[in-house]
Design a protein that fits this description.
The structure holds two protein chains of two kinds. Chain A is mostly helical. Helices cover 85% and strands 0% of the residues of chain A. Helices cover 70% and strands 0% of the residues of chain B. The chains are: A mainly alpha, B mainly alpha. The interface between A and B is large, with 31 and 43 residues.
């Protein structure tokens, strides 16, 4: 689970660099670059999963506190 | 302050966070201090902050990119504060060895707060956001981006060796995958 989060963020960063190279070469705008869109999606999924995982971890120990 | 200089400061921020993650890995391997699930989530927080800095370096400065840094730093601060709260009551113990008097989760909280402050200062120093097509990275910025990616890839491997595809143990004492191959 945790390694998936790191993997998603690494993929997002790699896609960002690849997307930038693509944009410079073909003079396309950033928004049209598939790589950059993929990067945003990977980041978004990683962020949501991180929040989910944190809330899951917190809820596991909530019964101990209560 | 020119946008090029502010972008260089963003690259320095990226390098700084990459250095923090690298130090975490060094402590994990050399001192055999395996990170707990909350420790790993704090590393994820740093990685998300790195992504925000990288957006500013690669695409150019935009307010949304600083938003990414702020949200990521808030997430990291929330996780580290949670871990501090688990150990703040006397007698509840601590996790890991202290570094310069503070435990790593306390350092992480201070660094996330420092990141928030840095993002605020950078926002004040920024002028008109960069246009995507006008940004050209220099060799140093390119190198910093690749260093960050390599360190993050090492984290993927280390975490997979420790936890495998499953949920990490609360108090890990061994690498799960390496143990299963012995």
């Amino acid at each position: 689970m945790m390694s998936l989060l790191f993997l998603l963020i690494t993929a997002a960063m790699l896609a960002l660099i690849m997307g930038r190279a693509k944009v410079v070469d073909s003079k396309l705008s950033d928004a049209k670059s598939l790589y950059i869109k993929t990067s945003y999606i990977c980041f978004g999924v990683a962020f949501v999963l991180s929040l989910y995982w944190f809330s899951y971890h917190a809820s596991q120990q909530l019964d101990i506190i209560l | 302050m020119s946008n090029t200089l502010v972008r260089s400061i963003n690259a320095l921020g990226l390098l700084g966070i990459a250095f923090i993650l690298a130090m975490g890995l060094v402590m994990q391997v050399v001192l055999d201090e395996l990170p707990c699930p909350l420790c790993l989530l704090q590393r994820v927080g740093f990685a998300l902050v790195m992504y925000g800095f990288m957006l500013n370096v690669i695409i150019g400065q935009r307010f949304a990119h600083y938003g990414v840094i702020v949200f990521a730093a808030l997430f990291g601060a929330m996780v580290s504060l949670r871990q501090i709260s688990l150990h703040v009551i006397p007698g509840t113990g601590t996790y890991g060895a202290p570094v310069f008097g503070y435990h790593l989760y306390t350092w992480a909280f201070l660094l996330f707060v420092a990141t928030l402050l840095a993002a605020g200062v950078l926002l004040m120093l920024s002028r008109v956001p960069d246009k995507g097509s006008s940004v050209k990275m220099n060799l140093l910025e390119r190198a910093v981006c690749w260093i960050a990616i390599v360190i993050l890839a090492l984290n993927v491997i280390a975490t997979f060796l420790e936890c495998g595809p499953l949920v990490c143990a609360d108090n890990p004492v061994d690498y799960m995958l390496l143990k299963s191959f012995r």
